[in-house]
């Protein structure tokens, strides 16, 4: 048996052996990722048999199985890696578990559950013959106009890094060679969410210092967590497309951070250098740029193949440079055991694994913890005994597409708008109905209006329904057309006739509970002021309605905290909490300085009291890890979970640093009346600043350590720390 086919030598040894047998064409083939939906079946087969494509994306089940069989029959029999956008569950496949969006689950602040969700997705995708998900998104969600905010873990680099590391662990499991592990892909490297004006895939004007301070840290955490692949974003940074940036890919990601997996471009980034960004006159030039910059796999730029073969044959690109990329790809293939076992779709297994009881249970637990109670005036929630009839009103009350959000079989790869979800789903209406029936409450429903189209409305009809009920639950927000790639919004107000609908419902005099079903924070100060209670559910997936209903009726005590801040007005952006201090306060004369809701905020049905903040040392050096301790008492009537947050401010620093930065958190369950001492480590080396020369330095001096229930000053206890 050829050495590389023998499973005993290490992956490194097998890579060396295989590489020595490969032609230039076979090597370049390994760098190709073909989009299954962009080619005919014959072309797909040719890509395997004639050009040795290393990877396909969006080929599922039997299609993937067929291509993999073909790959085994080629000269060297190098298996294909199949990738998919399993972004919140393996949701492009109807019937699989659909989790809440990444933004939604980030509000759980529960790493453990997020890891479990990653595991579920891995098992389901692996059963479908897939090896790789293009997830998680590590973009920092700061410009809410951007259409892909729903895909982020919110606005804070530290929280993003922690939650990303958790989901990566979940996807990749204990070992990549386990048949139910899949590769994670941290994306979109780098600062992709920061493009000018929140306009998707555009230029980003950030300095390298700022990149190191804000945008690189989550990627560093992902690399440290062992993330196997990283995707280079669509955007340019200060005029250089990321896929053409040697500095960002080779120097920083591979050499400095020590990333040893492989880099994949985003969808046709190589072509974009020619057609959109125009930094290359033709494909040869684009291919040269992306190879030199350090991309290892080329997503959906099929013309790259001929150009790259030519560049190597003409000696313009050294073969050693191709070898470096191919080694990385092959190393992962060997590490996954793709040469040694068949990891293919097993329809029988799929039916057994998809949305099985265990997976549904993980989904329900994470959905419950992801919902954030934003308002609860006079304890309007949970609904009390006096309620006999509820009016559920609004365009998102019974719309599973809006509730699912982006990256499900409704939106990708081809929209199939009328497909009915196979796995059980609960819209808000369905969830409220099911629980109401159990306790003998009647539920009335009216759509009221459309999300976008102002002509589709029957506000009078909705009011008639509201007038018959004891309480109104209005379910509003945004829709699929307002979220996703290229769906950036200039206006974050409620669209269509939703605002009018709400105002009329308020005028009915009935208690008004608002459930927000939306991809991202909207500008809803009226709702904050006028609704008796507000639940933010974002895109809560298949079980959103069930979990929201449990909260509404008090079966579950809400514990979600915002991972992202809410503006008063689109023009007030950005409103993220970790802003720099400024001379005139960094605010507008016609807007409040604070957001409507801040990062870290979220209510519970119980109340918590923080006291006795102590530091294990008040004077320390850079190498220390100190303990931040605080007493937390559940002062209310029921058990509840609270997320204790640590923020730090560097009082005087040689560059301007944020007014506060999250450096730790812990979510804990605490019984009514109980007091717990919460002990959290704080690594002093994490208190670094990035100097104008791009060096990381912990500067001696005084720091304020703040601990509490949100990023707002009023919610934080403070202590002083001196670093020598
Ligand atoms: C997106 C990526 C995604 C890729 C493959 C691109 O348009 O930017 O996030 O993984 O398509 O579907």
Topology summary:
Blueprint: H1 11-21, H2 24-30, E1 32-35, H3 41-49, E2 55-57, H4 61-72, E3 81-84, H5 102-106, H6 111-127, E4 132-133, H7 157-172, E5 185-189, E6 203-204, H8 208-224, E7 229-232, E8 236-237, E9 240-241, H9 246-256, E10 262-265, H10 269-275, H11 283-293, E11 298-299, H12 304-313, H13 319-335, H14 347-353, H15 357-370, E12 372-376, E13 389-393, H16 400-404, H17 428-439, E14 442-446, H18 459-467, E15 471-477, H19 498-507, E16 512-517, H20 525-530, E17 533-536, H21 544-552, E18 608-615, E19 619-620, E20 625-634, E21 640-650, E22 661-670, E23 675-683, E24 689-690, E25 696-697, E26 701-708, E27 716-723
Parallel strand pairs: 1-2, 1-11, 2-3, 3-4, 5-7, 6-8, 7-10, 13-14, 13-15, 15-16, 16-17, 19-27
Antiparallel strand pairs: 8-9, 12-17, 18-20, 20-23, 21-22, 21-26, 24-25, 26-27
The structure holds beta-D-glucopyranose.
Beta-D-glucopyranose binds next to loops.
Structure in a nutshell:
Helices cover 31% and strands 19% of the residues. The chain contains 21 helices and 27 strands.
Write down the domain tally. Answer: 3
CATH architecture of the largest domain: Alpha-Beta Barrel
The whole-number mean of residue pLDDT values reads: 96
Most strands sheet? 6 strands, mixed
Estimated radius of gyration? 26 Å
Percent of residues in helices comes to: 25-40%
Distance between the termini: 62 Å
Strand order in the sheet with the most strands: 12-17-16-15-13-14
CATH class of the largest domain: Alpha Beta
CATH structural fold name of the largest domain: TIM Barrel
**By helix and strand content, what is the structural category?**
alpha/beta
- The total count of helices amounts to 21
Uncertain stretches of 5 or more adjacent residues:
none
Strand content: 15-25%
- The general outline is globular
Q: Care to count the β-strands? A: 27
Give the name of the CATH superfamily of the largest domain. Answer: Glycoside hydrolase, family 3, N-terminal domain
